[in-house]
Predict the 3D structure of the following.
Amino acid sequence: MGVERTNNLPEGLELRRKLRRKATPEENAMWKMLRAKKVANSHWYRQFSVGPYVLDFYCPEVRLCVEVDGIHHNMDEEMARDERRTRFLNREGIEVLRIPNEVVWNCSDMVIATIEQAVVERRGAK
């Protein structure tokens, strides 16, 4: 008996494609940083679905998610939604790093260092 697949299901493909096409400038900048394997030689996916959620960026090797958050994530309703999402992902063994938009632009070296540290730590925890 095989294991039931729950991530990146085919029925969510169009949504993931739409989200890639409508990516914010900050998400595009983050993708440029991650896709070249310059962060601890790790492989990343963008718009990867886990259960009912589509993650901005995901490294399956270390089960690390990076979310690039705009100003609307500071609103109460959105914060509650993000909290539920993070709890779900944590139960799945996925760590979530939330990076505000302005930090992507203003502190990209710090963002890469933070992600790299999380990757290295999670590799060590295996």
About this structure: The first strand starts at residue 45 and ends at 50. The chain has a mean pLDDT of 82. The chain is about 45% helix and 20% strand. Residues 58 and 66 are 6 Å apart (CA to CA).
